[in-house]
Each structure stands twice: as structure tokens, then as C-alpha cells.
Amino acid sequence: MSKPTLALIGATGAVGTVMRELVSTREDVWGEIRLVASARSAGKLLRVRGEDVVVQALAPEVFDGVDVAIFDVPDEVSAEWVPVAAARGAIAIDKSGTFRMEPDVPLVVPEVNPLDARNRPRNIISTPNCTTLSMMAAIGALHAEYTLKELVVASYQAVSGAGVAGPARLYDEIEALAGDRTVGQSAGDVRKALANKLEDDSPFPAPIAFNVVPWAGSYKDGGWASEELKLRNESRKILGIPDLKVSATCVRVPVVTTHSLAVHARFEREITVADAHRILEGRADRGPHGRPRQRRVADADRRGGHRPDLHRAHPPGGRLPEHARHVRLRRQPP
């Protein structure tokens, strides 16, 4: 039987680069791999599986004969082109937020709800936001045995979550402030120090160097940030708990890549630390004493550091710090 054809749309971006690395270093299950990007990138040569592949411009015909098309493009591009790929016979897997909450599009985390991918009437499968994805394998495993009731989540999100402009801005601010040991000691002094050194084009609402920004994403009704609503709504859909209580606070931190989360989960039945360790065994990379280490997962495939603990004030419950590099999360082999 011939191997399936894969198309990577957004192949020149940050996530596209990682996808090319993964298909090049994992078991070779694909036949042809087509690299697709905007017209300005067409004609470029990129390496995949040790060979140079010409980037094709996004057009309807690039999906002819494609079995699986993976999209990592802005929402507006997904909205236009994902249905085109699906209509031409490809299973379209979309990483944007465009289709996540559509009732006829499954939102899938392979470790949690893989069978949902079979029910795809539009031939589209969506994947969750990187922050939701970071905690979902662990939460899903615990939910399967103890039935989740409530989540209280605090995320500490790297600047890479804001796209290529995020790390660029952090590096620019660090360079601009380098050697100045007077900043960071009084209100507003970092902003003042940057005012005459950098353009006012930051993707963040406040300086990110020497700072944490208690806001991630865009402003939504009710005072929520978009990242916080994604955590709530996507968790409900993936786990199949439409009335799940979720309270989320998302903070941007001056780290290049790797999101961290502190997850407080309450379950129907009492759970012990030993139970949690048993269920989560092998699902993460832990350091000494079971403590997570952010730097060790900055360029790794594995989620890092489940450190379960009991929340003594509100049993039955648990506390679960997480780390995950958001551009490399993937299903782990059994």
C-alpha cells in the first residue's frame, strides 16, 4: 500500500520549522511531503528528510492528491483555506483558533480524546491552544479515573506564544537595558528607560524585560483575556464536560519559550499523591525530588514536570505544576 501524502501549510514559520524537523527525524510514514506557504515564500528550498523541497504557493491545486494537510497559519488564512483542503479530499488538521469551538469540528488531544477525530463531518480536525494542550494529557488521565469537577489554572506563558515578534521584542528590550542596574526598582522606570531606545511596536501591553505582564492575548467581554477564555472553553470541549468550572489567570513572563502552569484540580473522588504519580508515570521529565525544570524542556518534545501535591484546604483535589514547550508538543509513543 502506498504511503499517504502530507501537506504542511505554513511550512516557513516557527511551528512549520518544527514540523519539518519532526517528520524528518521520526519514523518515515509519509510518501510525498509538500511544503506550502504564502506567495512570497514560493520557490524557496527547505530541507525535509534530508532532501531539498521547493515551497509551493498556497492555491487550491496544491491539495490535489493530499491525504493529510496540517495548517499552522493565522486565523483568517485558516478560515479561507482549511475548507478548500477538506473539500479536495484532505483531512485538514488546523492549529488556529478558527474552528476549535465549532460543534461539527472535533477538538482533539490524542492522549485524551483520540476517537473524537473519527467524527469529522467537515473533514476538519482542530487542535487546542498551546496552553490548554500543555496540561490536558495529565488532566485527562486523572479525569478518566477520578472525574474532574473544577480547575483553577495560573499560566506563566513564554513570549514565543505571541509569535516571532515576541522573542524579538524580549531580546531587543534586554539589549536596550543591558548594563543599566538602576532599572526595575521603581514604578514605570523600565518603560521610561525604553521610551527613547525602541519603537513603540511591542506585541505586549507593557515592557516584558524585567517584568511580568498579567495579560495574555486580547481583551474580551467581562474583563477576560482571550487566553483565559481559551483555557476554559477548550478544556470543557476536549474533556466533554460542558459545565466544568474553570478559573484561569494567564500571565506573560520574560522567558523565550516554554509555558508553565500551576493547575489546581478538584475531582469527584478523593485522590492521593501516590495515585497521581501512578497515573502520570512516564508522562513527563522530572528533576530531583520530582520537581519540574523549565530549561530542560525548552528544546525537547516531552512535556516537563508533573509535580502532584494535595490541596489540603479543599480535598479531594490536587495541585499540578506543568511545563511544556508549546511549539513541540506532540503525541508520545507508547
CATH topology of the largest domain: Dihydrodipicolinate Reductase, domain 2
Overall, the morphology is: globular
N-to-C order of helices and strands: EHEEEEEHEEHEHHHEEHE
Mean pLDDT: 87
Main beta-sheet strand count, sense and barrel state:
6 strands, parallel
- Classification by helices and strands: alpha/beta
Q: How far apart, in Å, are the first and last alpha carbons?
A: 24 Å
* Radius of gyration over C-alpha positions, nearest whole angstrom: 21 Å
What's the number of extended β-strand segments?
A: 12
- Which strand order does the major sheet show? 5-2-1-6-7-8
Point out poorly predicted stretches. Answer: 325-334
Oligomer: single chain
CATH superfamily of the largest domain: Dihydrodipicolinate Reductase, domain 2
Helix content: 25-40%
CATH architecture of the largest domain: 2-Layer Sandwich
Number of helices: 7
Give an overview of the whole structure:
- Helix content is 25%, strand content 19%.
- With 334 residues, the chain is of the alpha/beta class.
- The chain has two domains: 6-127, NAD(P)-binding Rossmann-like Domain (Rossmann fold); 132-158 and 215-331, Dihydrodipicolinate Reductase, domain 2.
- The strands form three sheets. It has a six-stranded parallel β-sheet, with helices on both faces. The protein has a four-stranded mixed β-sheet with strand order 10-9-11-12, with helices on one face.
- Helix 3 runs parallel beside helix 6 (226-239).
- The longest helix is centred in the middle third of the chain and has 17 residues, at 130-146.
- Residues 325-334 have low confidence and may be disordered.
- GO terms for molecular function: aspartate-semialdehyde dehydrogenase activity; NAD binding; protein dimerization activity.
- Residues 281-334 are annotated as: Disordered.
- It is an enzyme of class 1 (oxidoreductase).
- Residues 296-312 have a biased composition (Basic and acidic residues).
